[in-house]
């Protein structure tokens, strides 16, 4: 009986993970996740939330078997699951495995905890505010990353930096925050109950940032997902990055578009070219809007030049449904899965509603 159980459940098999392209091997204790074991053995394994929601610890299982503590499918797309991607923070190792992690191509600053205060909120649309915080000292981050904000009596919530980083760090930081009906943090924020509030800020977190190289880029933003992409584009322009760029921005109506002038200004200076494409899903037919209508993901194919789609890198932020649809469309068009980078703006209700 004992040997049958051992055979079935693999008890006693050495749990060893080979991590490529580092070419290192680690042992994984039965009570640990793959991420916990890697960090305990000194591997700089990309990670952030550790609870299966951010996707930073995504890696590709090339040999062996793991089991998922929480379903990888809440965070990873169908295409990623089919290609063998797993979340190391949610993976328990069965026997010997081999995984591949991405070389992030940038030195990401180590997260720290800061004392902060909400010093200003400005309406961008009827349900998105620019929220500015003052910190006790400058924070160093890479364009595209996010911070976790904890207000008194509330759970921590993640928000992406909306401005480009500065040499020496930024002591005043901004975020674009969308009101989520029934949401603990955003309902209070929009009711004005957090004006001047002392908050704790932990960051920077996440691995979403512009990868090096000369590949053309396609950016896709939905709602407040514009924040990290604006940070990324501002930073790239400041650093004279010269890559062809297409920027799609999905919103419901003209009233939900914001920062358009700023994007158009970036587009004017951008070399060799930045094409900005706003797409409205619920704009009244009689409004006179001459731009594109429908879901932003329905317009990717017509916007990406045929012939060199496989050369593109994809950068996307926004609601989980938009990200999943965009990954499906980009991969259908031939953009390689490892060249697609995103932050899904998941919330406490994601996967439960
Ligand atoms: C990496 C990352 C970056 C992000 N960046 C941004 C950003 O830049 N801007 C931005 O606006 N947002 C961003 N988000 C989302 C943000 O972190 C919050 O999730 C969002 O603001 C909602 O927070 P909340 O406390 O108001 O709502 P929550 O309290 O999280 O509730 C959200 C919704 O879920 C419902 N809900 C809660 N629990 C359950 C349950 N058990 N079952 C069913 N429904 C439930 C609530 O009623 C509500 O409708 C980001 C998220 C991630 C992961
Ligand atoms: S660290 Fe694993 S999903 Fe966030």
Gyration radius over CA: 21 Å
Structural class: alpha/beta
Largest sheet: 6 strands, antiparallel
Q: What is the level 1 CATH name of the largest domain? A: Alpha Beta
Q: Tell me the CATH topology of the largest domain.
A: Rossmann fold
Strand content: 25-35%
Spatial separation of the terminal alpha carbons: 42 Å
| Integer tally of domains | 3
What sequence of helices (H) and strands (E) makes up the elements? Answer: HEEHEHEEEEEEEHEEHEHEEHEHE
> In the CATH hierarchy, what is the architecture of the largest domain at level 2?
3-Layer(aba) Sandwich
**Which distinct ligands sit in these coordinates?**
flavin-adenine dinucleotide, FE2/S2 (inorganic) cluster
What is the overall number of helices? 8
Q: Please estimate the helix content.
A: 10-25%
Give the overall silhouette. globular
**Unreliable runs:** 1-10
How would you describe this structure to a colleague?
It is a single chain. The chain has 353 residues and is of the alpha/beta class. The chain folds into 3 domains: 2-100, Ubiquitin-like (UB roll) (Roll); 112-205, Elongation Factor Tu (Ef-tu), domain 3, CATH 2.40.30.10; 217-344, Rossmann fold, CATH 3.40.50.80. The chain is 19% helix and 33% strand. The chain contains 8 helices and 17 strands. A 6-stranded antiparallel sheet has the order 9-8-11-6-7-10. The protein has a 6-stranded parallel sheet with strand order 15-14-13-12-16-17, sandwiched between helices. Helix 8 links the parallel strand 16 (313-318) and strand 17. The termini are far apart. It binds flavin-adenine dinucleotide and FE2/S2 (inorganic) cluster. The site of flavin-adenine dinucleotide has 29 residues, from strand 9, strand 10 and helix 4.
């Amino acid at each position: 009986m004992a040997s049958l159980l051992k055979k079935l459940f693999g008890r006693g098999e050495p749990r060893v993970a080979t991590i490529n392209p580092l070419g290192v091997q680690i042992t994984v204790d039965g009570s640990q996740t793959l991420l916990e074991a890697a960090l305990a053995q000194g591997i700089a394994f990309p990670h952030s939330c550790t609870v299966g929601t951010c996707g930073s610890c995504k890696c590709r299982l090339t040999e062996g078997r793991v089991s998922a503590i929480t379903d990888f499918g809440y965070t990873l797309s169908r295409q990623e699951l089919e290609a063998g991607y797993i979340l190391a923070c949610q993976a328990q190792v069965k026997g010997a495995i081999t995984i591949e992690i991405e070389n992030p191509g940038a030195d990401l600053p180590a997260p720290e905890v800061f004392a902060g205060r909400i010093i200003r909120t400005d309406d961008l649309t009827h349900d998105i505010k620019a929220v500015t915080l003052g910190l006790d000292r400058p924070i160093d981050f890479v364009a595209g990353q996010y911070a976790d904000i904890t207000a008194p009596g509330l759970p921590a919530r993640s928000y992406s930096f909306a401005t480009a980083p500065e040499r020496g760090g930024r002591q005043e930081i901004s975020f674009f925050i969308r009101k989520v009906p029934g949401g603990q943090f955003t309902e209070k924020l929009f009711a004005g109950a957090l004006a001047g509030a002392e908050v704790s800020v932990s960051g920077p977190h996440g691995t979403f940032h512009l990868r090096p190289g000369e590949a053309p880029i396609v950016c896709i933003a939905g709602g407040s997902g514009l924040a990290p992409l604006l940070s990324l584009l501002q930073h790239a322009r400041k650093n004279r990055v010269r890559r062809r760029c297409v920027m799609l921005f999905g919103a419901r109506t003209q009233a939900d578009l914001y920062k358009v002038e700023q994007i158009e200004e970036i587009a004017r200076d951008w070399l060799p070219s930045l094409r900005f494409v706003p797409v409205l899903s619920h704009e009244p037919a009689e409004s006179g809007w001459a731009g594109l209508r429908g879901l932003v993901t329905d317009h990717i194919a017509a916007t990406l030049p045929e012939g060199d789609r496989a050369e593109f890198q994809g950068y996307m932020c926004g609601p989980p449904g938009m990200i999943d649809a965009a990954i499906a469309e980009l991969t259908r068009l031939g953009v390689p899965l490892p060249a697609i980078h995103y932050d899904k703006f998941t919330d406490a209700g994601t996967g439960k509603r």
